[in-house]
Amino acid sequence: MTTSEMEKLITILVHGENHPADRVVTLSEADLDKSFDQLDVDSLARAEMVETISDTYQIQISDEQAGELGTPRAVLEFVAAHGTRKDL
Amino acid sequence: MAAGAYRPPRVDSLATAEQLGLSREWIVSRTGVESRCVAGPTESVVTMAVRAAQDALTTAGVSEEVVGAVLVATSTNPQLCPAIAPQVAAALGLRVAAFDINIACSGFCYTLHVARSLIVAGSCDTVLVVGADRMLDMVNPSDRATAPVFADGAGAVLVTATEGPPGVGPVVWGSDGSRATALEMRPTLFEANNSSLRAELKMDGLAVTRWACSTVPAVVREILSVTGIGWEDVAMFIPHQANWKLIQKIAKALDLPEKVAVADDVRLTGNTSSASVPLAFHRLLATEPARSGQWAVLVGFGSGLAYAGQAVRIP
């Protein structure tokens, strides 16, 4: 999973599938370590994100692992370590 | 069994969307909630509960005097004491046994089983079971996870002893208090009194969603098993109206036959916690009138974390 794919996923979670063109999430290096709450990704959106990652990268994610996916960087590293790469 | 309802006026999700700086489409696509019932200042938990109870009595075609006990499932009594139920009983002109049960979103199904147990034990012949909540009293209007979904309302059923086959099946229930913080009010009311903080509902949507998806389908299968029925006997599936997406996930996991109507009251009413199952039941009774005599499977789940469910014969 690339940072750009992560930006696309967060944009959909925060602004919806049919988001306006000016509502696109971009992640700076510092943003990668911000909590999802700080990035306006609420807990229901995180549930959706974990499901999307699990389906897209074919990873079984335990409750404990899901709870630890609290920042974009944590997700990127988790997918790199466990995922089977597919297109988002 | 007869059902009644009280739904405060509906407010379109567009209003919530504007308040949160989101689009209506965002709310509907993520939660399925197109509108929510929002109580006004005069629609207290007590008054909504009374209106739902009166509706159930009217549907049953009986007068208040037959009621032997009044049980109210609620988690939004603004006073820790007194309980809501005695006030509901008094408004109906009754001085019978009356008490509340607080187990939030699974509260109605817990309370229905207590009513069944009172009848089976011979304590009384007819029990009024009400689920009533004003969830918006404890929701932060700027919280994206809770503000678009939660709502206010009350639903009721009148349960009566019968000589024939039982209309309320055995319960399947349980809890996992080790996950209590996943859906709780923080800070407590007492802590809030001494600070500038507001006591409000905090939801870890990730934890609650994953727990529900891994727990509820197995609970539903167990309900069928302990009742001795299969999906061929079931006409309605009425899960707690948490949000439409979660309901769809649970229904998909159960691989329900097409003929089973899945309650979707959350789309118009929102998530009314203790009131959601009886309100959803009430709506399906109105929209699916030909299902009488078949079974409906009810299941509540949520804060606690806790769950309860049973099958009931459709009146």
- Distance between the amino and carboxyl termini of chain A: 8 Å
CATH architecture of chain A: Orthogonal Bundle
* Strands of chain B, count: 14
Question: What is the class of chain A in the CATH system?
Answer: Mainly Alpha
Low-pLDDT runs of 5+ residues of chain B are: none
Mean pLDDT of chain B: 95
Instruction: Indicate the CATH topology of chain A.
Output: Non-ribosomal Peptide Synthetase Peptidyl Carrier Protein, Chain A
The major pleated sheet of chain A works out as: none
Name of the CATH class of the largest domain in chain B: Alpha Beta
Total number of domains of chain A? 1
The greatest inter-chain interface is formed by: A-B, 16 and 19 residues
Total number of strands of chain A: 0
Class from secondary-structure proportions of chain A: mainly alpha
- Protein structure class of chain B: alpha/beta
**Residue share in helix of chain A:** 40-55%
Rg from Cα of chain A: 12 Å
The largest sheet of chain B has its strands arranged as 1-7-6-4-5
Order of helices and strands of chain A: HHHH
